[in-house]
Amino acid sequence: MLTGKQKRYLRAQAHHLNPIFQVGKTGVNGNMLVQVSEALEKRELIKISVLQNCMEDRGEVAEQIADGTKAEIVQVIGNVIVLYKESQENKQIELP
User: pTM score, two decimals?
Assistant: First the structure.
């Protein structure tokens, strides 16, 4: 689990990032979870945008993706989810 201080730090790091995935009306599926996992391994910190036509609640979508990829939810703000997962191969972010 991330501490408040670590989440604050990660939110600041994520501020300039653009969302690299979008969740639409089909919701979260297995293929998407595989791609998100790979992206997290490469980048450690990513943003995912939840589109207007998504039938599920943003919070539920965030939970599903976090559970499926074993990532931490840093923030859900507006229609954007910020996720963090420590990389095994290319560790770039040093948490406080």
Answer: 0.93
Beta strand 45-50 with 21-23 is parallel
List 77's β-bridge partners, or say none. Answer: 80
Residue 87 identity (one-letter amino acid)? S
Q: What CATH number is attached to the domain comprising 75?
A: 3.30.110.60
Question: Is residue 30 a part of any domain in this protein?
Answer: yes
Q: Please count the structural domains in the chain.
A: 1
DSSP three-state, residue 55:
coil
Return d(Cα 44, Cα 33) in angstroms, integer: 15
Question: How far is Cα 32 from Cα 52, in angstroms, rounded to an integer?
Answer: 18
Edge-to-edge strands of the sheet including 21-23?
21-23, 45-50, 80-84, 72-77
Q: Tens digits of per-residue pLDDT, 15-54?
A: 999 999 999 999 999 999 999 999 999 999 999 999 999 9
